[in-house]
Amino acid sequence: MFKMSLQRRLLGVTMLTSLVALLVALGAMVAYDLRAYHEAWVADLQAQAELLGRATAPALEFDDHKVASENLALLRLQPKVHAAAIYGTDGDRFASYSAPGFDALLPSRAQAAGVRRVDGDLVVVLPVHEGERVIGSVLLRAKYEIYERVLTYLGIVAAVVIVALGVAALLSTRLQRAIVRPILAISDVARDVMQRQDYSQRAPKTTDDEVGVLADSFNGMLGEIERSTREVLRLNEELEARVHERTAQLEASNEELKLATAVAEKANRAKSEFLSSMSHELRTPLNAIIGFGQLLGGEVGEPKPERRREFVEHIVGAGKHLLTLINEILNLARIESGHVELSLEPVLLDDVLAECRRMIDPQAAQRGIALHVDAGCRHAVLADRMRLKQVLLNLISNAIKYNRPNGSVHVGCSMVSSQQVRISVQDTGRGLTPEQLEALFQPFNRLGQEAGPEQGTGIGLVVTQRLAELMGGAIGVQSTPGVGSVFWVDLQASEMPALPRAETDWGDLPGLATPLAGQRPATVLYVEDNPASRKLVEELLSRREDLRLLTATDGRMGLDMAREQQPDVILMDNNMPHISGREAQALLKQDPRTSHIPVIALTANAMPDAAAAGLAAGFFRYLTKPLDPGLLIEALDSALATARRQRR
């Protein structure tokens, strides 16, 4: 492709710029002149037409064709007017005029007023007025010379453009030499540098203007390129070393990726094993419940009377085990999903250990295990009190359950650092092997105790570990086969609480098993939408002659009956249609007629958070399903005692 030199390009740009400027300027001048000519000529013709109309108005008025024709004949003094005509009120041509040598036909009928071009001529039509009346119209047709003027201007523009471009070319040629030559010198140096890769060359500086600045900048760029070239060579050497280093790191990362893949596959297998174990653990108690239930129902064979109690004990035991399993699975699921809310506060360990001992002593005594709890453990930790009790009860219960006959369990606490307190549970059981310790905190892994006499879920320790971690602590174990194990929980130390936490509530008030002589039977209202649950409570309370049981099938009916019957105690299911037990209890508290009545919650929601929220909302007690008959009777008697105290 043809390449134009810089000098020719500059010349072309100069010429093109000059040409455009000239054309724009001349075009504007010509357009202005043509417009002025058109407006002046139109105004002149309109003025002549108006004068002609006024002079001819009397002739139109008196129907004098001769005078009208004579008036039109005066237009011969205007050589540019080719023809004219006057039209009457009826629109017919009244008189006309045509210049010599002009044979164009005039319209026989009057046309609309206005200005128009016809065959190169300019036609003007104006109405003729007599006072306010229009009595006719005047038509003038004159020569329109705008096209001749355009041709004349084009000739002038061409001549001016030719002369201007010649002068511009002459001046541009001389001026470009002072600009192009230094640039060409820089171009020659640049070409030589590219060919030889010799960045030490420099372009000559001949002027101090912008071209001189360009030369300085070009030379500075060459110097920078020369330095950069040396730096690139050095960096290339370093890059080679880094490539070798990165290659080694990539190989190491690939090994780590393989290990991570193996860990993920192991986790996937563990998940599958977890689901399989959970299915097995759930089906095992269900098998006992369904099987013994079929035996009791006579579906397989009529059992002997002495064996019915044994079957019932098996069903109750399997049901309790299934309930424990479900509760622990739900606890683990809530913990893993992050839905467990903790209230971390300073907790005095003496109080918590004393409560745990009161709760666990019957189990230890039943199994003949000596339980020792250090007295004077005067340390405080930052923990959730309820969750801490759950952790310690699980560890102590396991230590008792898997201990040897006539063994012992020792619970103590100590400071492992200025910021950390350790609570330890030591037993005298069979101990654990290193292999068992590795699988200790896996869900449903009972470490070979599945076929043992002790029932368990294999989830308790997992829940215990998660809770300890959520409270900012850690759990550990040390075990010696044949000697025993020591489990410990490390928690953050805290300042002593200002006041000991009160543990009493309405449920701690002493209750009355039966009313005093002469007292009327107490009224108990049970609000429950499930017929089977209502029937169970009716059977449990049927032997209490001191109680009168009323039932309601939903929350609204329960509210109406509570206001009407004024029962002594209300048993309230939480999950009901229309109005939940929580909402019904709140409405009862707001009503002065029922605000004094103790309300005991009976619900299938066994989450600890739900229980704490229920008690905080004002429930007298919070009992979970499946109901424990003993706990129900104890809570009912306690509520009746409170109701009697309030009436005094």
Would you write up a description of this structure?
Helices cover 54% and strands 17% of the residues. With 648 residues, it is an alpha/beta fold. It has a five-stranded antiparallel β-sheet with strand order 2-1-5-4-3, with helices on one face. A five-stranded mixed β-sheet has the order 7-9-10-12-11, with helices on one face. Strands 14-13-15-16-17 form a five-stranded parallel β-sheet, with helices on both faces. A hairpin with a 2-residue loop joins strand 4 and strand 5 (133-143). Helix 4 (210-296) packs antiparallel against helix 5 (305-337) and helix 6 (349-367) packs parallel to helix 7 (385-401).
Distance between the termini: 117 Å
Describe the biggest sheet? 5 strands, antiparallel
Stretches with pLDDT under 50, minimum 5 residues: 499-517
How many separate helices? 14
* Strand ordering within the main sheet: 2-1-5-4-3
Q: Label the overall shape.
A: elongated
Proportion of residues in extended strands: 15-25%
Tell me the radius of gyration.
57 Å
Mean pLDDT: 79
Structural descriptors:
single chain; 648 residues; alpha/beta; five-stranded antiparallel sheet; 54% helix
Secondary structure layout:
Layout: H1 6-62, H2 65-73, E1 81-87, E2 93-98, E3 114-118, E4 121-130, E5 133-143, H3 146-196, H4 210-296, H5 305-337, E6 345-348, H6 349-367, E7 370-373, E8 380-383, H7 385-401, E9 408-417, E10 420-427, H8 434-438, H9 460-470, E11 474-480, E12 484-492, E13 522-527, H10 531-541, E14 547-552, H11 555-565, E15 569-573, H12 581-590, E16 599-603, H13 608-617, E17 621-624, H14 629-647
Parallel strand pairs: 7-9, 13-14, 13-15, 15-16, 16-17
Antiparallel strand pairs: 1-2, 1-5, 3-4, 4-5, 6-8, 9-10, 10-12, 11-12
Helix pairs in contact: 1-2, 1-3, 3-4, 4-5, 5-9, 6-7, 7-9, 11-12
